[in-house]
Write the structure tokens for this entry.
Amino acid sequence: MKNTIVLLIVFITLASCGNDPVPKPNAYLRLEYPQAEYDVYNKNLPFTFDRNLQSDTIRFKPLKDDVESFGLNIEYKKLKGTIYLTYKAIDGEARLTQYLKNAQNFTQEHTKKADAISEDLWENSENNVYGMFYEVGGNAASQSQFYVTDSVNHFLTGSLYFYAKPNYDSILPAANYLQKDIKRIMESVQWEQNN
């Protein structure tokens, strides 16, 4: 019996000898999104733009205002996100100044939760489109906003929201995908010609 216990201790000692445990590196979820395919969206609006055909629906919503205004919601159900567009007609320089301040203040409201906000100026003088793209880093409610205008007749703002509690690390891949769509909207906007 004594020999059995000794053999058992020797066996356990030898079996437990081996490589030290090595922690495995963190794994990251691999998310693959379909290649974006764009088509011109033209539904009797005062402007056209390219939309990603991967979006599920575009909802039109008239807004109460003393000028022509409406909203378009571009929904991405698989990504659980929506790009909200708001169009307003401009009727004078004071109105343009008001719209610009509102768009800039809306972005600045996210500084409470944002780690950083970067600005990219946008200008396409050939199509008379000027604006700004804002990328918001951190756990803010919206990861991207933008506005574009012709400075005379048209003003379009947009923002990206997800149907989830803001967790920047989790939604970053989807936010990056939809930011490309936002930039494509900005690049492709063409205003209806006013007579």
Notes: The chain has one domain: 38-191. The first helix runs from residue 2 to 16. Residues 38-191 form a domain with the Protein Transport Mog1p; Chain A fold (CATH 3.40.1000).
